[in-house]
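TASK: fixed-backbone design
INPUT:
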């Protein structure tokens, strides 16, 4: 599903963010990416959806080399990859329904199919009753659920979540995690970068710890800080 082969990332200012990383993530896995601020998590995540390019090395998604994609083809890559951010990135002037539908309108999906798929993902995130609401009328947790619905409306094989619970209270964070787990149970590979120690330690999924741009730990049922 996802492979990195001897990947390095050095920024123009000389900062080395990723230092010779090699990793393999299978289809259907749920993986936590943990590490301190500045460890390289964000660079790791951004390279997967081609916001950043590696300085050296190869990255494969679904056996396709990311370096082979021309810039005009990057949107096609991202259609098979959902991304959820800490700050939601919803369009304030659009309703919940319209925010999610937008991802399908840009690929000129038929109106009937758009409605069917939008309502389907709203059901998954338990927000069918909020379809006509605007983002400012929702709680933070509800906005994040809309962002998740938008990310999965194209039925992506991979969902990348970058600190999706970072701005949420503990109870709401757990609601988001149960939804992500349900999405994973449906077959989607989930990668989640997080600082949430309680969630990582409780759920015991695969944990990849990054320190200094390198993989410090890779555990099948890991914890945040290598705890037993």
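OUTPUT:
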């Amino acid at each position: 599903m996802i492979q990195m082969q001897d990947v390095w990332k050095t920024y123009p200012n000389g900062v080395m963010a990723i230092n010779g990383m090699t990793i393999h993530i299978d289809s259907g896995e749920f993986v936590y990416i943990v590490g301190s601020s500045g460890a390289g998590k964000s660079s790791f995540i951004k390279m997967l959806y081609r916001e950043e390019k590696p300085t050296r090395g190869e990255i494969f998604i679904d056996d396709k080399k990311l370096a082979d994609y021309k810039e005009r083809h990057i949107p096609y890559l991202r259609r098979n990859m959902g991304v959820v951010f800490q700050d939601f990135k919803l369009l304030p002037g659009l309703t919940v329904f319209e925010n999610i539908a937008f991802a399908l309108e840009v690929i000129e999906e038929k109106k009937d199919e758009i409605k069917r798929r939008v309502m389907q993902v709203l059901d998954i995130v338990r927000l069918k009753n909020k379809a006509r609401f605007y983002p400012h009328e929702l709680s933070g947790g509800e906005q994040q659920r809309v962002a998740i619905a938008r990310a999965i409306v194209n039925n992506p094989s991979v969902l990348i979540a970058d600190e999706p619970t970072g701005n949420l209270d503990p109870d709401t964070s757990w609601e988001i995690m149960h939804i992500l787990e349900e999405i994973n149970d449906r077959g989607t590979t989930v990668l989640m970068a997080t600082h949430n120690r309680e969630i990582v330690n409780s759920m015991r999924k695969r944990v990849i710890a990054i320190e200094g741009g390198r993989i410090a730990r890779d555990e099948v049922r890991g914890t945040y800080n290598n705890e037993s």
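COMMENT: The beta strands are 2-10, 16-25, 30-34, 56-61, 64-65, 81-84, 158-162, 189-193, 206-211, 214-219.
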